[in-house]
Design goal:
The chain is α/β, with parallel strands linked by helices and about 850 residues long. The protein is built from 27 helices and 13 strands. Strands 1, 2, 3, 4, 5 and 6 form a six-stranded mixed sheet that branches. A hairpin with a 7-residue loop joins strand 5 and strand 6. InterPro entries: Actin_polarity_regulatory, Afi1_N, Tripartite_DENN.
Length: about 850
């Protein structure tokens, strides 16, 4: 931590004007500096407009009451209050400090004002950070930089917060009398007690939120500083210009800062619901504009219930999902739930502000991945140049590896990266640095922004070089000639990426690479290796696999199609980048591109776990499922069957099952991890990725991910099976009816409550086989008159296949699962996306089950009467 602080680079130390003033807003939130998803989207029909209609006596009904008259888990949970991300009574502020620095030609960089008080640290360093190079040549420029708060103060605040939590828990224990002894200590570690209930301060089960754990292992939270500088030409002063910030030109007094400070912190975001990690991922995986609208409605209703709302006052009646957009705006309902619209009342003018509802880790600032990718892809596409030298960690597809993949590999393997923008605004290099951090994080990995320096210069080089694996932005071309300072140079002006000829070599050869050079683990030798491969490991066997119809790039983040593969693309990166560029050309939007890279990162972590388990025998990147010893609590949506075989009689529910019974899952559903289409594809793909996986295993982001995996496991709703693995098997393997039936039944048995449904939706929301080109199932959906929910790949498509299974118990269990998804506030959007073909099959299965139940009841009554 201390190293990072001392290595935080300063900005300009040489002034260009007689009076240069910069205003900085300092905040711990992403409120003013985060990019909202501006991808084009289409709204989906609400649940009430689903074309499939079922009879009112159907077992799976809109009523959440089971046979015992007990509300279902979804009904009970919906009665709990929705918590706000920014409560109205919170003491936290959107902006903590406003800083004003100026450059005087005689005195240098000077900190003029700090409101409402000193931020702490070296004031001269802060003043230099706020003044980019060559500001006087531009009308406006901005940067973002990060500050580390005092660790001692943070520890004191954390202890106070923990004491408050303990008091609230003791009070809750006294009221409920259901908490187990020792649960309090466990909550301090993982935020949960033995019953699965969360700490009251963090929200209950319905609003589970693990965002507070994002910085747990990385030290105190960062302070995000947004710095804006405006230039005003004035020939009466030295050097002909005065650079000041915003309204400070007209009224340069402390009252101006106070007014701005109060105005920004007066922004009301209390109607933004808090989302748990699964909800955030689901929201960012979809373009549906009314996704989780129910949470907004609930939090508005709660606010109205606490006010003087009366039925006779139409302005205070509860909002309805059927309202048009103008009516929704009247009640504060967003037109697009991906962002909340608010206002900053400054100088008597309401300034509109849009704040993202869901933000993922390492997402800071208003950057564009589309712009970053286009910058380096265009020169490579028009005039490809091989990388010289090559490096095993970076050029994983040979000398002509796509530049974006080289950049991604460099970020994952913690190389020193410089973004050079000669004669460009400092905002451009800052944007590129922040975009690169998000590119490699994908909302999954951490540790990039903490070592990122969106802007620096030559005067700070000594401090910069003390930071391993830094990501820095510069505008001075002198950096390009100092190859010993960096491992990768990304020139924003030319769109070219260079690998330093002084980059550290990989020596000795890692054990994981040698593993695939041993007999029995060699990649297929039936085809030629990729030309120009620099890794030293064979990336062969692709032609043979293509002939067999297997796609190595299939799965999370891949873009290959079943039966097709790009020759020589063992890693799948060529197909992946082709899909990304196609999405950009077709204007899918920034959100779609970010989702693709998130899937790529998820796939990479699962590949790394499979790599470690095979090579080293175990992996800390994954926790194997824990087989259940008892049945989960009964659900009104699932029919319990007494026989695992084909059922010829009416299936009998077991509503009176008050106690747990042993649950035995077949061994094939207790496996976990990444699913490979064939054993040879596993060898080929892991061998092709071996060098970058080995390079990643010694980095900050790797160890952060290990810690995050361990910390998140206790809060995972489904621990008995790996839902991602089971869904992968349905999507990527040719399973027998017995094998697929076991998978379907395991998923249906484990996914019962709302939390479990959310985890399942997060799994299917990632999509499979790469939605870049579509698959046979996607064509089937389109032909059936349905559609795929925007940004969700295949959605429920592979689960919907279970409605056509030859066994009746499998069909009915899948129908029950889809019924629970259909009832879920987010699942209803996935349900619309399956199309009429699957919806019609679901209706037929439900009607057939109801007919059998009626026949069985009539037979039982007749037998009793006889």
């Amino acid at each position: 931590m201390a190293t990072v602080l001392s290595a935080r680079p300063n900005t300009n130390s040489t002034g260009t004007t007689n009076s240069t003033t910069s205003r900085t807003l300092s905040t711990q939130h992403h409120t003013l500096s985060s990019n909202s998803d501006s991808a084009s989207a289409h709204s989906h029909a609400p649940y009430d407009h689903v074309p499939v209609q079922l009879p009112s006596h159907r077992h799976v009904s809109n009523s959440h009451i089971n046979g015992n008259g007990i509300p279902s888990p979804m009904s009970r949970r919906r009665q709990r209050p929705i918590k706000s991300q920014y409560p109205a009574n919170s003491t936290e502020k959107h902006v903590e400090y406003i800083l004003v620095a100026s450059f005087d030609i005689d005195r240098g960089s000077v900190m003029e004002h700090q409101y409402p008080g000193p931020v702490g640290g070296d004031e001269h360093m802060l003043a230099e950070l706020m003044l980019p190079d060559q500001t006087h040549l531009r009308s406006q420029d901005w940067t973002i930089f990060f500050l580390h708060k005092d660790a001692a103060g943070e520890e004191d605040d954390e202890m106070k917060q923990r004491r408050r939590r303990r008091r609230r828990r003791r009070k809750k224990q006294g009221e409920d009398g259901q908490m187990k002894a020792g649960a309090e200590d466990r909550e301090d570690v993982d935020g949960e007690d033995g019953q699965g209930e969360e700490d009251e301060i963090d929200g209950d089960d319905d609003n589970f939120d693990d965002s507070s754990d994002e910085e747990t292992f990385d030290g105190p939270p960062l302070v995000y500083v947004l710095n804006l500088v405006n230039t005003k030409q004035d020939h009466t002063v030295k050097r002909g210009a005065v650079v000041k910030a915003m309204a400070y030109f007209a009224n340069p007094v402390i009252e101006t800062l106070a007014g701005l400070y109060d105005a920004v912190n007066a922004m009301d975001l209390s109607l933004m619901p808090r989302l748990n990690s699964y909800d955030r991922f689901i929201l960012q995986s979809s373009d549906a504009k009314d996704l989780f609208l129910e949470k907004f409605e609930a939090i508005i209703a709660q606010r109205m219930a606490g006010s003087n709302a009366t039925p006779s006052n139409p302005a205070l009646t509860a909002p309805s999902p059927t309202m048009n957009p103008s009516q929704r705006a009247r009640y504060g309902l967003p037109r697009d739930t991906h962002e909340l619209e608010s206002v900053v009342p400054y100088a008597g003018i309401p300034i509109p502000v849009k704040v993202p509802t869901a933000l993922l880790p390492e997402t800071v600032g208003d950057f564009s991945l589309v712009k970053l990718i286009t910058t380096f892809s265009t020169p490579h596409s028009t005039s490809p140049q091989p990388f010289t030298p090559t490096h095993p960690h970076l050029t994983t597809s040979g000398g002509l590896t796509h530049p974006i993949i080289v950049l991604l590999n460099a970020l994952l393997t913690q190389k020193r990266i410089i973004f050079l923008g000669h004669n460009l605004p400092s905002s451009d290099v800052a944007e590129a640095v922040l975009g690169a951090c998000a590119l490699a994080s994908g909302g999954v990995l951490r540790g990039f922004t903490r070592h990122a320096f969106p802007y620096t210069d030559l005067t700070k080089i000594d401090d910069l070089l003390k930071v391993p694996g830094f990501i820095a932005g510069v505008t001075n071309p002198a950096f390009a000639h100092k190859t010993e300072w960096w491992d990768l140079l990304c020139d924003l002006g030319t769109g070219r990426i260079r690998i330093s000829n002084r980059i550290e070599a990989v020596s000795p050869i890692p054990e994981g690479v040698r593993f695939f050079q041993q007999p029995g683990h060699l990649p297929s030798a039936s085809s030629s290796s990729t030309a120009g491969s620099a890794s030293g490991t064979a990336v062969t066997g692709i032609s043979a696999l293509a002939a067999a119809g297997a796609s190595l790039s299939a799965g999370l983040g891949g873009s290959g199609l079943m039966g097709t593969v790009i020759s020589g693309d063992a890693t799948g990166d060529v197909a992946f980048m082709a899909g990304v560029l196609r999405a950009i050309e077709e204007r899918h939007g920034e959100g779609a591109v970010r989702r693709k890279f998130r899937r790529w990162i998820v796939k990479f972590t699962r590949l790394a776990a499979a790599f470690e388990e095979w090579v080293y025998g175990a992996s800390m990147l994954v926790i194997a499922p824990t087989p259940p010893t008892t049945h989960p609590p009964p659900s009104p949506f699932v029919v319990e069957h007494t026989s695992p075989g084909p059922s010829t009689s009416s299936p009998k529910p077991n509503p009176n099952n008050a106690g747990p019974s042993p649950l035995s899952l077949p061994p094939e559903v207790l496996t976990h991890g990444y699913v490979f289409p064939t054993p040879q594809s596993k060898t080929n793909e892991l061998a092709a990725n071996a060098t970058r996986i080995e390079g990643w295993r010694s980095t900050r982001s790797y160890y952060n991910f290990v810690q995050d995996t361990a910390a998140s496991y206790p809060r995972r709703p489904v621990k008995s099976v790996d839902l991602q693995h089971l869904h992968d098997r349905l999507a990527k393997l040719r399973l027998s009816s017995e094998g697929s039936g076991a998978v379907y039944l395991a998923v249906c048995q484990m996914v019962r409550g709302e939390r479990e449904v959310e985890e399942l939706l997060a799994v299917v929301g990632g999509g499979f086989w790469g939605a870049d080109g579509g698959v046979q199932g996607g064509a089937l959906q389109g032909a059936a008159g349905g559609g795929v929910v925007g940004g969700q790949g295949q959605g429920l498509f592979y689960l919907g296949f279970g409605l056509f299974h030859p066994k009746v118990e499998v069909r009915e269990a899948v129908a029950g699962l889809l019924g629970r998804v259909r009832e879920h506030e987010a699942g209803r959007h996935f349900w619309v996306g399956v199309g009429r073909f699957v919806q019609g099959a679901w209706e037929r299965v439900e009607r057939a089950r109801e007919a059998r139940v009626r026949d069985a009841e009539e037979e039982a009554e007749a037998a009793a009467g006889g």
